[in-house]
Amino acid sequence: MTDSDRGAKWPRVAGVISDLDGVVYRGNEAIADAVKAFRRWHERAVPYCFVTNNSTYTREQVAGKLRGFGLAVDADRVVTSAVAAAQIVRERHGAGARVFVVGEAALKQAIGEAGLEVTDEAPAVVLVGLDREVTYRTLRMAVRAVRSGAVLIGTNPDPLLPVPDGFDPGAGSILAAVATATGVTPMIVGKPEPHMVLAALRYLGTPREATLMIGDQVSTDIVAGKRAGLVSVLVRTGVPARPDPSLPAPDFSVASLLDIPCAG
Ligand SMILES: [Mg+2]
């Protein structure tokens, strides 16, 4: 099956936004067809960029990994949930806004690079991402800041983090602790919410109806693509998920990225 389950016709592809793990690589191994497909788009000058919910790598680190697979990717072409969160905080709270960060170095770096201040003193925003060394003290500070009126934002809602030997608690599990303690529903930046995908779309500057959102997970990638108004494409190279009738069907479903027609 190389076309939509509903037999829809492919649009002209003006731009491509893609998930990474399960689409371009699995762990540290490139998916050969995906590398070929992105090289093809590159040769035909179809702009593309990559989105990831993971807030623990800088965009430079992600771009470096992709270059290692033979893709011409600079940091501008990578939108992480950390970078998108920093953009949103900057837009909504202005330059210099004070942000308490529950997260690792890459998230703090993204906040600093956006002209915001990482601080635990009277923050306007509490931003929660994955912090693999989170402590009770950090959670207590986050909870107290939110109870004092800070806005609660989460980089991504993922409950679990896949690791080579199983799963670890994800950013969403840490966020849930702060949300439960405060009774505040956080704003979520990453997939399945559309904000990170919309940041990528702004970077590409392509029309929504001719921009693909490619991913291997319906519950995150496809839902985010649909919420952002893009053409959603499921590629069946990732972890197979059990079909869930409560989730939307992707616009297209392909076995390989090479099944997607190139620029029309
Ligand atoms: Mg994926």
Task: Give a verbal description of the structure.
The mean pLDDT is 94. Strands 5-4-1-13-14-15 form a 6-stranded parallel beta sheet, sandwiched between helices. The chain has a 5-stranded parallel beta sheet with strand order 7-6-8-9-12, sandwiched between helices. A two-stranded antiparallel sheet has the order 2-3. The two termini are 21 Å apart. It is built from 8 helices and 15 strands. The chain is globular and about 50 Å long. It has helices spanning 32-43, 59-68, 81-93, 105-113, 136-147, 171-182, 195-204, 218-227; strands spanning 15-18, 25-26, 29-30, 48-52, 78-80, 98-102, 117-118, 125-128, 151-154, 160-163, 166-169, 187-188, 211-215, 231-235, 252-254. 33% of the residues lie in helices and 20% in strands. It is α/β, with parallel strands linked by helices and 264 residues long. It binds magnesium ion. Residues 19, 21-23, 215-217, 238 line the site of magnesium ion (MG).
Helix content: 25-40%
Structural class from helices and strands? Answer: alpha/beta
Assembly state (oligomeric): single chain
Measured by DSSP, the beta-strand proportion falls in 15-25%
How far apart lie the N and C ends? Answer: 21 Å
The best one-word shape is globular
Number of strands: 15
Ligand list:
magnesium ion
**Main sheet: strands, sense, barrel:** 6 strands, parallel
What do the pLDDT scores average to?
Answer: 94
**Cα-atom radius of gyration:** 18 Å
Order of helices and strands: EEEHEHEHEHEEHEEEHEHEHEE
The number of helical elements comes to 8
Strand order of the largest sheet: 5-4-1-13-14-15
Low-confidence stretches: none
